[in-house]
Amino acid sequence: MKTTIKEENNNHVVYFEGRLDTSASSQVQVDVQPVMDNVKSDIILDCNKLEYISSSGLRIFLSILKSAKASGKHVYIQGLNNELRQVFTMTGFINLFEFK
What we know:
The chain is an alpha/beta fold. It has one domain: Transcription Regulator spoIIAA (2-Layer Sandwich), CATH 3.30.750. Helices cover 42% and strands 34% of the residues. The chain has helices spanning 22-37, 55-70, 82-91; strands at residues 2-8, 11-20, 43-53, 75-78, 98-99. It has a five-stranded mixed sheet with strand order 1-2-3-4-5. Helix 1 (22-37) links the parallel strand 2 and strand 3 (43-53). Helix 1 runs parallel beside helix 2 (55-70). The longest helix is centred in the first third of the chain and has 16 residues, at 22-37.
């Protein structure tokens, strides 16, 4: 699992690549913590190269959303493939996030 964070167009963009499963989630949590600790702009979660997300990964997305909302910012998700979209739909996360 690879996580890359960049500032683009006054947003923080978090790129996820690979499988966000239980074994990868603790490192991903560490990787995204700086963004969650200092939310100064909207956050885009780029899932174009995300192959899989487990419940641990969904918890990370929810933590990012809570941090952003507490700062009055938005979280957008882009690039969900059909399988990930089904996971978001089945879990109700489709109603929590904004999509690009």
